[in-house]
Design brief:
globular; 5-oxoprolinase; alpha+beta
Amino acid sequence: RVAGSGCGYSRQMLTLQAPEDIDRHITLDVATGQPVVIDALGPVVVNSDGTLSRITNWERMEESERDVAKRRISKRNVERLRAFRDKGELKQSLVSALAAASSDGAASGDAGGGGAEGRNASGFRFSIDRGGTFTDVYALCPGEAVPRCVKLLSVDPANYPDAPREGIRRVLEAATGVPHPRGERLNSSRIEWIRMGTTVATNALLERDGARTALLVSKGFADVLHIGSQARPDIFDLRVRCPGVLYEAVVEVDERVVLAKSEPPGEESAARRGLRRVRGETGEQVLIEREPDLDALRGKLAALRASGVEAVAVVLMHAYTYRQHEEAVAALAREVGFAQVTTSSSTLPMVKLVPRGYTATADAYLTPHIKAYLASFVAGFDDDISKVEISFMQSDGGLAPADSFCGFRAVLSGPAGGYIGYAKTAHTPGGPPVIGFDMGGTSTDVSRYAGSVEQVFEARLAGVTIQAPQLDIKTVAAGGGSRFFFREGRLAVGPQSVRAHPGPVCYRKGGQLATTDANLLLGRIRPEHFPRIFGPDEDQPLDVEGTRAAFEAMLSGEVHPFYEATSPAGAPPRRMSVEQLAHGFLEVANEAMCRPIREMTQMRGHDAAAHVLASFGGAGGQHACAVARSLGMTRVYVHRHASILSAVGIALADVVVEKQEAAALTLGEPGAAERVSVRHAALAAAVEEQLAAQGFAPPLLRTDRFLNLRYAGTDTAIMVSEPAAGG
């Protein structure tokens, strides 16, 4: 796993003096190209007029602020120095010298530039979090020291077809003063990059709205994914539910590969039976009992394609070490006309057929949905969009180019941005660990950061197990849009969401009562400080009167009639005010959000009260104090960009490439450690080559190495990271 730093930075983190305080800078005129001595008090800043300056409060900045500032200054310095050189105002030697001095070993000027020909290196930079209810846009605009922020509904078909593109349009129009009509393709010539975290894959998985998918599996194993691992989430549950599957059809492939060491004793040897023995990628010997019958398979695949199936997942036995059969079947499927073909050996080259099959089918099911969204997003721009660097947030907290963004790495694309955002801004080295509390419109995501990113390598979402590196984020269906219900005398919140359309009652779209309505009624949301984006003309505030009327209707139509019918004879029925009803719903929602935090702290041996609560998300600030009080926490951090911190985190994220391959070694055997080192080096070279193609120089790369280890005689592996030098 290699991360390329230097492409993620935030403009507001750079604490340069305001223009009117420029006299406080130490400046040197370098327009003549004469060599100068640079002081070591922070990085050198190349100003637009050819002078040099430094950051006067460098010694008071936090280390995280310094890192971000150095990355940003380095890139901007090189851009300005090259501009001076191109104009003949600066010597090439001075460009190189100052570029090295300004980077201070942190980042080169080409970091994150990607080196794409024709890319606008000083254009608009957009970081976008497309959530289930709201879309947040964090924009760094040329010549502006303060970022622009836009929040808009993710779904508003009456006004725009795509929320991220609409946010970009609004920023371009406001910053340039040039009209960008909604009905026309956007001019992308001034855009340098677009980074996005999206819930497209998550929603498709939750709503089972992915591509029509078929499973191609070794003959005799048609039901292997339906049977699953026989894991019981609740061992006392009398009603055992089989895991759901994402495919609608199964085709058995008549082929067979077996491990040589699994030959039953006493049987005729493989050589006598005419079986071919091959050394697999893991070093294990495999026997090819039967090659795939491609001629028989062709007709079955053609019938599937004719029925409307558009994606296939190829999952064959022992493909983790011998992938040739999967590749042959995949080539035939593409020839037949399937647009999405996923092989388990390329997605997850690991032992164990079931998790490998789950992950491959999830990728085949979700990737077409992602590609379709990307195509619709790009279609709203002009032809220059091909020169813009577009990347997406992955579940592991790293960015990936749009052309390599795939389904099984996208399920936590949205929440991952918030994790990176608070990890880089709320935690200080040596300080207390931080709990991230990201309350959005549809759900709440909680996570923990104690100085290093906490990941899991297998997670279950919406009944589907996916084996891939993911940030350890727990999600609960309680957000600003969680719907209120009164059921047999009980107050219930969610899991159903009113979503962005029609939304809560206060959105003026004929919605239902939700958490946002309760906060509005109790004065925790001030309509005068909330965007006026509601109503048919998108210019009206939240509807306070309508919200109160809806709560009164629930009281008179459901709550009070129930109390009257169930009160003891002779006793007056219970009465509630609309404020008491709203407060009761909020207490239910708060408790639902505390449960996953206790799971990440107390159930793992950590004291919840020893943590800091980092609250963000559009609704986080309305509930943070109540949640912290319930958990015994005494400190809450609220970021200045709390409502769009996920978008800020995407801007701060690194580009990450992750590769893995299977191995069958006994660690204590002679030469095993050397073989592991050689294979690690080969994997590192492969991912570094990919990052180099995106413009990252070796000094900017950090490599994390892992081994999946298990004790002899067991089948449960533990992912172990490489210890620090000397560890």
